[in-house]
Every structure is written in C-alpha cells, then in structure tokens.
Amino acid sequence: MYRFLFSSKWLGYLLLAAIFATACVFLGRWQMDRRAETLAEINRVTSNYSATPLPFEAAEAQFSRLDADKEWTQVELKGRYDVGGQRVVRNRPLNGQPGYEVVVPFRLTTGQTVVVDRGWLPIGNDTPGRPDSVPEPPSGDVTVVVRLKPGEPELQRGAPDGQLASIDLPAYAAQLGYPVLTGAYGQLASETPAAATMPYPFPKPSVEEGTHLSYSLQWFAFGVLMFIGFGYAARQQARNAEIDAQDAAGDGTPEYAMAANRRRPAPRKRKHPTAEEEEDAILDAQGY
C-alpha cells in the first residue's frame, strides 16, 4: 500500500522534510546555547554584583587574567586617578541612547595601575562627536569600589584624540606609555570622596532569562510537525489508492484508470452562450 513512498517524488518530499527538520533542530539548539549563556550571566550577576568588596590583594590576579565566573565581582581600590590619561569611549549606547563612557587610569598605592570606567555620558549638543563636558574625577587619595569586567577586542577603526574606539586595554596602555594591568578593568560602583559631578552610573544588568527556551521549543516542534505532515500526506495518498482499488475491483475497471478518472476534473459549463449560439437561436426562432 505504501510502495509509492519509494518513488522519486515522495523520496524528494522526504528529503525536503529532513532538511527542514535539521534546520529546525539547529536553530533550536542555538536558542538553547543562548539560554545557557544567559543563565550563566544571571548566575554571575546574582553571586557577585552585590557581594562584599574584596581587597585588591585578594583580586590582584583577576586584573591580569579575569576568570569568567569572577565577572561583576566587587573590589576595593585605593590610590589616585591619573586625570591626564582620561579618555572617552565612543559608541556606547545606554537604554537606547547614544553616548560615551569615561575611562581613567587609577594608580594604586601598591604601585600598579588599573583602568576604571567611571560611567556614561550622552552625546554632546554643542560639539559634534564628543560630549559637551567630561566631569573630572576627585583629586588626591581616593578609595573606589569597582566591579570587574573583561577587556574588549580591538576594533578596526580609529578614534579622535582623547577618545577610544573600544575598551581595548593593551591599546589604551600603549597610549599611556606606562605599565597597566590589562586582564580586566573596573566598572565604578562608588568612590570616596565623591566628585562634585559624576557621569551617569551604570544600571544593574538584567536577570531576566528572556524567551530563548520558548523559541527553542517552538523550533523543535516545527521539526516534528514537518514529519507529522509528511506522514499525514502519505496516509491520505494510501487511502486514496485503496479506495481506487476497491472501486476497480467492484466494476472491473483497472485501478490506474480509476485513479485517472478520479483526478480528471469535470469540464466547466459555460455560463453564457457564445455569439454563434445566439445567432443560431435567432435563426431557429425565425424558422430558418
């Protein structure tokens, strides 16, 4: 009954179903991977974001090479800002608004230097391509609490003087001309004493999982439904063939003829007579 499945047409249908289902599985797994990354980030934020700050000595190694699970860890630093090395980082949107971030070298009392991201500034209205003003950090000895963040890759584009295309720590250190710890930088949480004016602080990262799980389940369901649809179509084809065989057995008509008759559409009747038919009707009415 299902020998037609081995025909080239139905094998082609099966191949298309398999290709579509494979694509659905790939997209579903991709969404699951995205979900795993999101859950890992949520766990880091939950564990580290509001934890008690560590002294620099306990987190020094992280500024040389940051472990992924230590991101957002709070660290307390003591030292002075190097205002002369301050830069603004371009193309840093926040809540859908374009702007900049302000990074400053921070010279620790232990002699090392780390980079501190002090916050966000909107684009300027007075001077295109830069913020209207950049608040200076407090002078003298300062105690800051920062959250660890990994450095960013180099972007293949330049930036005007006093600006950076990304927080590429090795490239930034090369501009400064003195040693800087380049494994991580600190996103400012607080500083004492506080400056008179500050850039906008960074909001807490979202801990919402999002829709990755539902999307992945939808893709898997689409892949399964493709085979269900193929099976339903095959079943309908087999039932039609069975009906044709029964009808053919009843009146002696060959099965292939029954199938041809079943598939042949009935001719449509014309709704309006042709011009020749109208002319013949008139002549008939006149007795010709």
Total strands? 8
In DSSP terms (H or I, runs of 4 or more residues), the helix count works out at 6
Counting helices, strands and paired strands, the structural category is alpha/beta
- Strands ordered across the widest β-sheet: 2-4-5-8-6
Strand content: 15-25%
Q: Give a short account of the largest sheet.
A: 5 strands, mixed, barrel
What order do the helices and strands follow? HEHEEEEEEHEHHH
How would the global form be characterised?
A: elongated
Notable characteristics:
alpha/beta, five-stranded mixed β-barrel, 8 strands, 41% helix, 288 residues, elongated, 18% strand
Write up this protein.
This protein has a domain at 51-192. The chain contains six helices and eight strands, in the order H-E-H-E-E-E-E-E-E-H-E-H-H-H. It has helices at 8-48, 56-64, 169-176, 212-251, 255-263, 275-285, and strands at 54-55, 74-81, 87-89, 99-108, 113-122, 142-150, 163-164, 184-192. The protein has a five-stranded mixed β-barrel. Helix 1 (8-48) packs antiparallel against helix 4 (212-251) and helix 4 packs across helix 5. The radius of gyration is 37 Å and the shape is elongated.
What's the short story on this structure?
The protein has 288 residues and is α/β, with parallel strands linked by helices. It has six helices and eight strands; from the N terminus they run H-E-H-E-E-E-E-E-E-H-E-H-H-H. The chain has a domain of 142 residues.
